[in-house]
Specification:
There is one protein chain. The chain starts with a strand and ends with a helix. The longest helix has 22 residues. The protein contains eleven helices and 17 strands. With about 400 residues, the protein is α+β, with helices and mostly antiparallel strands. About 30% of the residues are buried. Helix content is about 35%, strand content about 30%. It has three domains: about 240 residues, no CATH class; about 90 residues, Alpha-Beta Plaits (2-Layer Sandwich), CATH 3.30.70; about 55 residues, no CATH class.
């Protein structure tokens, strides 16, 4: 399952939880129980109410209690971590919650010039923020989502009141956490992303790839914020998808990089492409001759790699070849289901075609070690295939 976030109004911890519980209401008892296990005072209430913003209905998380009993422990990062570690929460939830707090502490420390242990949370140490983080950690563990993505993040404008006085939006810690994310100014003022919301985004490693995986929509949820925004519903929408798989194989994505070289010798290029083939994440490298500018013969190269390794592959291309420009894209691909097997001690790859026919290809490198001529290799490969066919017939 993968989940996409639409931060239409923005992102905050309570909005994230509300959106997820709107999509999966059966998780509510476990999430609320986890919030209570943080040591939440008995006079504090937890509610998930139906509400609307700009005529859009969703869920709103409301955490209220005695204003004189708001702070969790001392608000010190180290004390909060110790309190969580000593709670009855599941270890995996504790680990996630502490990681989110750690990200906040690193950001606050960078802003104020302090070490992590010296960071003292203010608004984030209130019970509602503690519950937001623990509730989020619980949901993430219960769902075990494999991938997250998010649209451009609204920048907001104006100021926000903090323990350090009025600060520009986004708040300093939020800005620190959102480094690397694409932000957009939609002209609507207000604090659109809270520090907790930003820390959750980095914890789930939400990507902003414009091209997302194909999938079957299985759930959606709307988490509403507390403020009314002018001209836009103050909500976070989540869309959950189930990855679709062809009956005879798998659909996924692959990175493709192409470039041409006309000023590198064949010997040098051969060595360069061998190095590219061994680069982590690279799946295949092919080359073919083309006619380039001024009628010069050139070599066109295509590199296939896993999408999250495309930058590493590009770096190696510029280091190993003389090209000064290339093209890259993310493509959808379909691959047959395959299985690595052993035939009489020789490695082979077994695939199943759409019509049910099984094809097996022996590893040529291993055949080469035990034969001296092409004819011997062909004979040995046919013997292995015949043996595999007989085994399949017996099954």
């Amino acid at each position: 399952m993968f989940i996409h976030l639409n931060p239409i109004g923005g992102i905050a911890g309570d909005m994230f939880i509300a959106a997820m519980l709107d999509a999966w209401p059966d998780l509510k008892p476990k999430v609320f129980d986890a919030m209570r296990q943080t040591g939440l005072p008995s006079d504090w209430s937890l509610e998930l109410n139906s509400a609307s913003t700009s005529s859009i209905t969703g869920k709103k998380l409301i955490i209220t209690g005695d204003a004189n009993n708001t702070h969790f422990s001392t608000g010190n990062y180290k004390d909060i971590c110790n309190r969580l570690s000593g709670s009855a929460l599941p270890p995996a939830v504790i680990k996630r919650a502490i990681d989110i707090f750690h990200r906040l502490a690193v950001a606050e420390g960078a802003v104020h010039g302090k070490s992590i242990d010296a960071v003292h949370f203010h608004e984030i140490a209130d019970w509602d923020s503690i519950c937001d983080i623990v509730g989020t950690a619980t949901i993430l563990e219960l769902l075990n989502c494999s991938e997250w993505s998010v649209d451009d993040i609204p920048m907001g404008s104006g100021t926000v009141n903090t323990a350090h006085g009025l600060m520009p939006v986004p708040a300093p810690a939020t800005s620190q956490l959102l480094k690397g994310y694409i932000m957009a100014d939609d002209g609507i003022a207000g604090e659109r992303v809270t520090p907790t919301g930003a820390a959750i985004l980095t914890h789930i490693a939400a990507s902003q790839n414009t091209k997302r995986n194909n999938g079957r929509l299985i759930a959606s949820g709307y988490g509403l914020g507390t403020k009314e925004l002018k001209g836009v519903p103050n909500m976070l929408r989540i869309l959950a998808f189930e990855e679709t798989t062809a009956e005879f194989g798998t659909n996924n994505e692959v990175g493709e990089i192409t470039f041409e070289v006309d000023d590198q010798t064949g010997e040098e290029l051969a060595v360069a492409l061998d190095i590219l083939r061994t680069t982590q994440g690279v799946l295949d490298v092919v080359q073919y001759m083309v006619s380039g500018k001024k009628g010069r013969l050139a070599t066109s190269v295509r590199v296939l790699c896993y999408p999250d390794h495309i930058d590493r592959a590009i770096e190696q291309i510029f280091l190993q070849t003389t090209t000064i420009g290339l093209r890259k894209q993310i493509l959808n691909r379909s691959v047959l289901n395959r299985e690595n097997i052993s035939l009489d001690g020789v490695s082979a790859k077994k695939s199943i075609r759409p019509d049910g026919v099984i094809t097996i290809k022996a590893d040529m490198d291993e055949l080469k070690l035990n034969t001296s001529t092409q004819a011997e290799r062909s004979l040995r490969r046919n013997q292995l295939l015949q043996g595999a066919a007989k085994k399949n017939e017996k099954r």
